Amino acid sequence: MIGFCPLASGSKGNAIYVGTKETRLLIDAGISVKALTARLAQIDVPLTSIQAILVTHEHTDHIAGLALLAQKLNVPILANVETAKGIIAALGVRPRFKIFATDEPFCFGDFEIHPFSVPHDTMDPVAFVIRANGLKIGVCADLGHVTSMIRKHLENCDYLYIEANHQPSMVHASARPQVYKTRVLGRQGHLSNQECAELLKAIYHPGLKHIHLAHLSSECNTPEVALQIIREALYGKPVDISIAYQEKVSKPIYF
């Protein structure tokens, strides 16, 4: 597949495919190799064709499948230094890393990849802007608030994968422990529907083709609520919006 496709999105595991004729990457590997293989097959991508794995940060829902996957494929893991240290500590293995510097663009195959800092409760979490085939893709989830630099990096994207994690009223009303509520609602936690909507209003432009709403909480959000808030915020602006799902392949974007 030449394109972009979320394979899993949420607290139970995250993985995204992005590929051109020359290069095929995964962003994160937070689900099992068996699940990755099955979901990639649904978009006609053999697991063995993956050439590298980009990692945003070392939380388990982003790296749970990484150890076995790296062993099976023998491909480089693209991460910054602090995330690499976190992966080694969490998994007890040392995959073959290719280290990038946060906020410094680099190339892999025919992709130009720009990792940039986001506020989240890990050592050095990043989001990515990826350029290929004359297109710009923004992948930005697991962040507690939006900074001016995040808005700047995500300007003029053709495709966006953006976190719409929770509805604050549903967090407060949930049976989750207070420590969870404090974390999720904090400035190093996750982005709410309204914060996502404000970001999208700020960076919308007529060339934006599609938005995936990502990392929805299974207990403190619903696809219907997230879509309603985002569509109201972008009312009258012609752009396709869909959900990045946890348990199934989401809408594929073909370049």
What attributes characterize this protein structure?
single chain; 255 residues; alpha/beta; Metallo-beta-lactamase, Chain A; seven-stranded mixed β-sheet; 9 helices; 14 strands; globular
Structural features, described:
With 255 residues, this protein is an alpha/beta fold. The chain has one domain: Ribonuclease Z/Hydroxyacylglutathione hydrolase-like (Metallo-beta-lactamase, Chain A). Helices cover 29% and strands 25% of the residues. Strands 6-5-4-3-2-1-14 form a 7-stranded mixed beta sheet. Strands 7-8-9-10-11-12-13 form a 7-stranded mixed beta sheet, with helices on one face. The chain is globular, with a radius of gyration of 17 Å.
Strand content: 15-25%
Helix content: 25-40%
Rg over C-alpha atoms, rounded to the nearest angstrom = 17 Å
**How far apart are the first and last residues' alpha carbons, in Å?**
9 Å
Q: CATH superfamily membership, which one?
A: Ribonuclease Z/Hydroxyacylglutathione hydrolase-like
- How many strands? 14
- How are the strands of the biggest sheet laid out side by side? 6-5-4-3-2-1-14
| Biggest sheet architecture | 7 strands, mixed
Are there runs of 5+ residues with pLDDT below 50, and where? none
